[in-house]
Specification:
Layout: E1 2-6, H1 16-30, E2 34-39, H2 47-60, E3 72-75, E4 89-92, H3 95-102, E5 110-115, H4 125-132, E6 137-140, H5 143-152, E7 158-160, E8 183-187, H6 196-209, E9 214-219, E10 231-235, H7 239-247, E11 251-254, H8 263-270, E12 274-278, E13 293-295, H9 300-312, H10 314-329, H11 333-345
Parallel strand pairs: 1-2, 1-4, 2-3, 4-5, 5-6, 6-7, 8-9, 8-11, 9-10, 11-12, 12-13
Length: about 350
C-alpha cells in the first residue's frame, strides 16, 4: 500500500501525538508499505519562523524521534492536493488536518482520521465534533474517544485503535528492586489540563515528611521557577535519555485531568516504575487498581499519599511494577501496526 499521513505542522520538540504517527509510519514501512509524512503549516504560523524551524533548525538539531530512511518526508508551508502522492490511504492526524483530507480527490487514497483527543485547545469543542461527522473513517485511540465520536455521529464509521507503546525504546535496564525507593519522576507541562502544579505540590508535601525524597521533572519547556535543590529538571529528553530517566525512578507521578490516551505513564511502567496517577479517561485505557495507585483529579493529598505508600511499602511497589510491565507488553507497536494495516485495507467499515 501507499500510505500518506498529514501532520498539522513540524515540531522540534517531543509531542505525544506526533510520536504515535512516527511510530506507525516506521512500523508500516517495516511491513513493506510505501509511507509518506507530509508536514504543512496548518496552524498558519509566522512564515519566517516556520521556514527557520523546518528548513534550518531541523537540519542542525538532533531529531527527537527517529524516522526510517524509507519513509518519505515532504515539507510544504502551504499545502495543496498536488503536494501529496497518489496512494491507497491518506490519514488526517489532528483536527487541523481533517477537513483538508476530507476534500482530497479519491486518487490520494481512502480517507482516514486518527482521532487522538478532543482537541478543544485548538478550536472549539463543537468544531472538533464537527470534524468527527466528516464522511471519512475515524480511528479512535481510546474507548472514551470512540464513544464520543459515536455520540457525535451515530451513523459514522469509527474503529478502535489503541495506542501502542514503543517497547524497543522503553524497557527495564535498571532492576526495579535495586532503585532508590524515594526517587520520583514526573512530566512538567504548562498546559492547564496537565495540572503539573498539583504534582509539584504533592512532591513538596511528601518531602516535608520524607526529606530524603528526590524528584526528576522533565518537559519541553523551561524549568519552573524556584525549584528546590532536591528536584532536578531535564528538558526535552527523548529516546534513550528518556528511557534512562524512567529507569532511575521508582515512582512515576501523573496528574492530568484529561488525556486522549496518555503515553508517559505507560512508558514509565514499561521501564519498571510504579505509577501514581489521576483517574482521567485517557490513562484508564490501561491503568487500573491492580497496576497503579489511582486518585481523583486535583486530589493533591491523594497524590502525596500515593507516593508515600509506594516509598514505604516495597511489596506494594514491586507488585505494581510487575503488573505494569505485563500490561504494557500486551500493547506492542507490532500488534497495533498490524491492526492499523487491516483497517487501511478495509476502508468504509465501522463497528
Amino acid at each position: 500500500m501507499k500510505v500518506t499521513f498529514i501532520l498539522p505542522d513540524y515540531s522540534l520538540t517531543p509531542v505525544g501525538g506526533f510520536k504515535i504517527v512516527y511510530t506507525y509510519a516506521n512500523a508500516l514501512a517495516e511491513l513493506g508499505h510505501d509511507v509518506t509524512l507530509v508536514f504543512p503549516d496548518l496552524a498558519r504560523q509566522n512564515a519566517l519562523s516556520w521556514v527557520v524551524r523546518v528548513q534550518v533548525l531541523r537540519r542542525v538539531l538532533p531529531p527527537w524521534c527517529d524516522i526510517q530512511q524509507s519513509v518519505s518526508c515532504r515539507f510544504r508551508r502551504v499545502l495543496t492536493s498536488q503536494d501529496l502522492p497518489d496512494g491507497d490511504a491518506v490519514i488526517a492526524t489532528g483536527v487541523q488536518t481533517a477537513d483538508f483530507v476530507a476534500n482530497l480527490p479519491q486518487s490520494k487514497g481512502a480517507k482516514f482520521y486518527l482521532v487522538q483527543h478532543l482537541e478543544d485547545w485548538i478550536v472549539s469543542a463543537d468544531m472538533v465534533r464537527g470534524t468527527w461527522r466528516l464522511p471519512i473513517d475515524k480511528l479512535a485511540i481510546s474507548k472514551w474517544l470512540y464513544e464520543e465520536i459515536m455520540d457525535a455521529d451515530p451513523a459514522g464509521r469509527v474503529r478502535y485503535l489503541p495506542n501502542p507503546f514503543d517497547l524497543r525504546t522503553f524497557y527495564v535496564t535498571v532492576p526495579p528492586e535495586s532503585r532508590a525507593a524515594h526517587h520520583v519522576a514526573m512530566m512538567w507541562s504548562l498546559a492547564e489540563f496537565k495540572r503539573a502544579p498539583d504534582g509539584l505540590a504533592a512532591l513538596k508535601r511528601v518531602h516535608v515528611e520524607m526529606p530524603e525524597l528526590r524528584a526528576t521533572l522533565f518537559g519541553t519547556v523551561r524549568a519552573p521557577a524556584g525549584l528546590p535543590r532536591w528536584i532536578k529538571y531535564v528538558r526535552s529528553p527523548h529516546g534513550n535519555a528518556l528511557r534512562e530517566l524512567y529507569n532511575q525512578s521508582s515512582i512515576f507521578l501523573h496528574t492530568s485531568s484529561s488525556e486522549g490516551f496518555g503515553l508517559p505513564p505507560g512508558e514509565a511502567m514499561a521501564c519498571g516504575s510504579a505509577v501514581v496517577a489521576t483517574r482521567n479517561r485517557g490513562v484508564l485505557e490501561y491503568l487500573h487498581e491492580d497496576n497503579a495507585v489511582l486518585v481523583d483529579v486535583g486530589d493533591v493529598d491523594g497524590l502525596a499519599a500515593g507516593i508515600t505508600s509506594l516509598v514505604v511499602d516495597r511489596t506494594l511497589r514491586m507488585r505494581l511494577v510487575e503488573a505494569g510491565v505485563a500490561t504494557i507488553r500486551s500493547q506492542s507497536t507490532d500488534d497495533s501496526a498490524r491492526r492499523l494495516e487491516g483497517f487501511l485495507l478495509t476502508p468504509g467499515v465501522g463497528y
